[in-house]
Every structure is written in structure tokens, then in C-alpha cells.
TrEMBL record:
Any single GO CC term annotated in Swiss-Prot or TrEMBL for this entry: plasma membrane
Principal location: membrane
Short name of one Pfam family: 7tm_2
Alphabetized PANTHER family for the sequence: ADHESION G-PROTEIN COUPLED RECEPTOR (PTHR12011), ADHESION G-PROTEIN COUPLED RECEPTOR G5 (PTHR12011:SF326)
Keyword Membrane assigned: yes
Protein's name according to its UniProt entry: Adhesion G protein-coupled receptor G5
Organism: Apteryx owenii (Little spotted kiwi)
Length: 507
């Protein structure tokens, strides 16, 4: 036999054997990963390095045909040979078998635009498109243990090419048999290592979600791993977090300015002997001013050092405790004036209220700083899509958080009972014509004064969660403004009718 012909034959056989060895090795790796996924998740993050190694082998594998496919129970891979010249887009579907009593997992599809190969040189012989379909929750695990639709993740990438900012998006289609819409399901992609502690997180940036009957269509401008993130009740989206933050900043700024104005007005123009009612109002406005100011500083200072953030969190916590304490003092004072009425003299009355309103919260905060300083620190406000979570300086301990809720709950319960008794007194004394409107104005003013709207925090569940959150944010961020308006109205009425000073002061 001719020596060159023999050499060519030997080379062809060697290359064929090498291709067979490569594909067998890759198939074994896919089978191994599938076996591990079927056995269980194990420690979070254990399977991600194995998937990364498989991606590299799929990108390097040699094969003769146009497409190489490996299909197992939890994972299916496709490696396609593409050429930049004449590429007009590609449609790819997957029908993964499910051995859990159902016939099959709903079909999924990916459509790649012609723009996908825009950065590939026309003279390059071929490019490889690697697609990996995964049916398991055991690889893409974030810190929030998020759930994705049917545990399906669809991934795609080009060999040695990073595809981003496509004008024509990649279309990823997920079919399902659930009731989904934009409120409980959004398209996301995986950000490896973005979640801290070695974990990644889901992000919706660059992806658009479209819902139709039985189908979720994701339009994304890049290649990576995609899924449909299920939003559980109690989660808020990134857009909702931004709008709530904006409302809070505007409301707290207005309340802080109004509180400061009334405090300065009182200090400059107050009478020589102002009554205890007015002094209690001013202490409450002072606490609200500090609370609003602390909240406005909390998020910017979250970017500062740990020590400064802990100090800010302690200050904000103390101001919140003081605000609730002074709202309780308002309720107690109202109880003495309108309910008990007789024998209401208390020695050093205002001093004792100050010890309760300022001293007790200060003692609590100082004790926490002395004995468990790490109770204060950075708190991440997580959103449904896991992207761009907000950070503020606040309580990091669940026990301290629950303790603060109990403290606030007891005060709100007492304040609500006092308000209900006052409403009953007003209804029973409504014998003069034309007093109904004044009575309702008094009740609304007392509702703000006693902080009853803070009780909305205890009704944040179910379908009312997001509306309640907006209502809570609007009402309580503007509480300082409402109290200032109410105080101004009462002050003007007292100026017009000096004879009613004593009765109005109690309101």
C-alpha cells in the first residue's frame, strides 16, 4: 500500500478514535452529574464547579456530526456547530423525560437571533453553541433558597465568546400548567457569585417577561442560564422597592421639615407657661424628627464603615423606641384627661414621662451596645428577583427584631383601646348640632397622634401585602406632617376661642 495513503488512513482512524474517546468522556461526565442531582442537593454550591467543568469539556469536545446531544433524567446537553456566514437564526426545543409519575415535562424552546453571530469573524470556520437544560434545584442555589418554575433552567453560551447587549433578544419559552402573571413569576438569569458566601443570585436585568396562557416567554439580551423565578407572597419586586424607597424618602423629608418648623415655632413663640399637653406634643414631634432624620441617613451610611453603620442603627432603633414611648405617653395623658378625669394629679408628671419616653429607650440601646453590639449592623432588604437588594443600617438579630415588634404591639394595643373609649365618649356626648364633623376631625387627629397607623405592620400577609406596604409607608412617613397640621389647626382654634383653651388642649 502506498505509504502516504497508509499514513492518512492511520491519521483518520486515530482522529476518529480520539473523537469517540472525547464524546464518551463527556457523556460519562454528564451521566455522573445527572446521578448526583438525582441523589440530592447536598451542600449548596457543590454542584456548580462540576457544571462549570462540564461546560468547558462540551466547548472542547470533537465530533463529526452537526449536533451532539446527551440526554438524561435531570440534564440534557446540546452542542451545535454554527457558521457565521449565512447564519439566519436558530430554533431549538427540548422535551425532557420526567420519571415522577408524569409522562413528560412541558416542552421548552429557545430561539436565537441572527445577531448572535455578529462578533464572529466571517472567515472563522465554525463556532459552537452549547445549550444545557437542567431539571433540578440542586445547582443554582441562592441565599434565599428561591424557587424557579418546575425547577427548569435553560442555559446557552458560545465557545470563547461573551454575548451581551443584543438588539434582537434571545427568546426562551417555558410552558406550564399553573396560574402565573407578572405578580408571581418573572424571567431571571443567573449571576454566579453575586449573592455572597460563595453563592450566586438571580437577576432580571436585561430580561423582559411576557405571560400568555400556559406559557412564559423570556426576552433577554445576552446568553447565560435562564429560569422563571416564582415570587412568593411577602416578596416585593425591584420596581416596588424603588418606589417604596422614594415614597419613604419624600415622606420622611417632609415630616422632618414640618416637625422641625413646629418645634422652632414653639421654642420662639411659646407662652411662658405652656400646658403639659403641648409639651408632650413637642416631645413626640422631637422623637419623630430624630426618627425621620435617622432613617434618611441610614441607607447612605450603610456604605460607610461597620462601626459607623452600627452607631446609625443604634440611633435609629433608639429613635423608634422613643417615638412609640411618646405615643404611649400621649395615650396615657388622654386617658387621664378624658377618661379618668378626677384625681389625675401626678407628682413630677412631665419628668416621669420624659424618663419613660427618653430614658427607657436609651437604657435599652446602651445595654445592647454594651452586651451584644453585633445586634446592630448591615441589613439587606431582599427583593423577589434578587437583584440590587437595598442595604440599610438596622437590627440584624431576629430576637431583637421580635422584641421590638412586641414592644410596639403592646403600645399600639393600649393606644387603640384608649382611642376606642374616646370615640365612645364623643358619640355619647354628641347632642349639640354641628359637632359631628369636629368629632371626626378629632378622631383622625388622635389616630395620627397615637400612631394607630403603625398597626398596619401586623397585617402584612396574603394578597394585601403590597397594598398594605404602600399604605403603611405613605401614612407613617407622613405622620410628622399630619401631627403638625393637626397641632396647627388646634392652635388656631384656641387663638380664636381662648375660652376653650383647656378643653382643646386635651384633644
Amino acid at each position: 500500500m502506498n505509504a502516504p495513503l497508509l499514513s492518512a488512513l492511520i491519521l483518520a482512524l486515530t482522529m476518529a478514535a480520539q473523537r469517540s474517546h472525547d464524546t464518551d468522556e463527556v457523556e460519562e461526565d454528564v451521566a455522573t452529574l445527572d446521578s448526583r442531582l438525582r441523589e440530592g442537593c447536598g451542600t449548596a454550591g457543590d454542584n456548580m464547579p462540576r457544571l462549570s467543568a462540564l461546560e468547558q469539556k462540551l466547548a472542547k469536545v470533537n465530533f463529526k456530526q452537526e449536533i451532539l446531544t446527551f440526554s438524561f433524567t435531570t440534564i440534557q446537553t446540546h452542542v451545535l456547530k454554527l457558521r457565521a456566514q449565512g447564519f439566519n437564526g436558530l430554533n431549538l426545543t427540548s422535551q425532557m423525560a420526567q420519571n415522577r409519575g408524569r409522562s413528560s415535562i412541558p416542552q421548552h424552546a429557545m430561539r436565537f437571533p441572527a445577531e448572535l453571530m455578529k462578533d464572529i469573524q466571517a472567515g472563522e470556520v465554525e463556532q459552537k453553541l452549547i445549550c444545557i437544560y437542567i431539571h433540578s434545584p440542586c445547582i443554582f442555589q441562592d441565599a434565599r433558597n428561591s424557587s424557579v418554575l418546575n425547577d427548569h433552567i435553560l442555559g446557552a453560551f458560545l465557545r470563547n465568546v461573551r454575548v451581551t447587549n443584543l438588539r434582537q433578544p434571545v427568546e426562551i419559552q417555558f410552558q406550564h400548567d399553573k396560574v402565573l402573571d407578572s405578580s408571581n413569576a418573572i424571567c431571571v438569569f443567573w449571576l454566579d457569585g453575586a449573592g455572597g458566601k460563595g453563592l450566586g443570585s438571580w437577576s432580571s436585568e436585561g430580561c423582559e417577561t411576557r405571560h400568555s396562557q400556559g406559557t412564559v416567554l423570556c426576552l433577554c439580551n445576552h446568553l447565560t442560564y435562564f429560569a422563571v423565578l416564582l415570587i412568593t407572597p411577602g416578596d416585593i419586586s425591584q420596581a416596588e422597592l424603588v418606589s417604596l424607597t422614594y415614597i419613604s424618602i419624600v415622606g420622611c423629608s417632609i415630616s422632618a421639615a414640618a416637625s422641625l418648623f413646629i418645634l422652632l415655632f414653639y421654642c420662639i413663640f411659646r407662652r411662658k407657661k405652656s400646658d403639659d399637653t403641648t409639651k408632650i406634643h413637642m416631645n413626640l414631634l422631637g422623637a419623630l424628627f430624630l426618627l425621620n432624620s435617622g432613617f434618611l441617613l441610614s441607607e447612605p451610611l450603610a456604605l460607610a464603615s461597620v462601626g459607623l453603620c452600627q452607631a446609625t442603627a443604634a440611633f435609629l432603633h433608639g429613635c423608634l423606641l422613643c417615638t412609640f414611648a411618646w405615643m404611649a405617653a400621649e395615650a396615657f395623658h388622654l386617658y387621664l384627661l378624658l377618661i379618668k378625669v378626677y384625681n389625675i394629679y401626678v407628682r413630677c408628671y412631665l419628668l416621669k414621662l420624659c424618663l419613660f419616653g427618653w430614658g427607657l429607650p436609651a437604657l435599652v440601646v446602651i445595654s445592647i451596645l454594651l452586651f451584644k453590639k453585633d445586634t446592630y449592623g448591615y441589613l439587606d432588604i431582599k427583593v423577589a428577583d434578587g437583584y440590587k437588594n437595598a442595604t440599610m443600617c438596622w437590627l440584624t438579630s431576629r430576637a431583637a427584631h421580635n422584641g421590638t415588634l412586641c414592644y410596639a404591639g403592646l403600645i399600639l394595643l393600649f393606644n387603640t383601646l384608649v382611642l376606642l373609649i374616646v370615640v365612645r365618649i364623643l358619640r355619647s356626648s354628641r347632642r349639640q348640632t354641628g359637632t359631628a364633623r369636629k368629632d371626626w376631625a378629632t378622631v383622625l387627629g388622635l389616630t395620627c397622634l397615637l400612631g394607630i397607623t403603625w398597626g398596619l405592620a401586623f397585617f402584612s400577609f396574603g394578597v394585601f401585602f403590597v397594598p398594605q406596604l404602600y399604605l403603611f409607608t405613605i401614612l407613617n412617613s407622613l405622620q410628622g406632617l399630619f401631627i403638625c397640621l393637626w397641632y396647627h389647626a388646634v392652635h388656631c382654634r384656641m387663638e380664636r376661642d381662648p375660652a376653650s383653651t383647656s378643653s382643646n388642649a386635651s384633644k
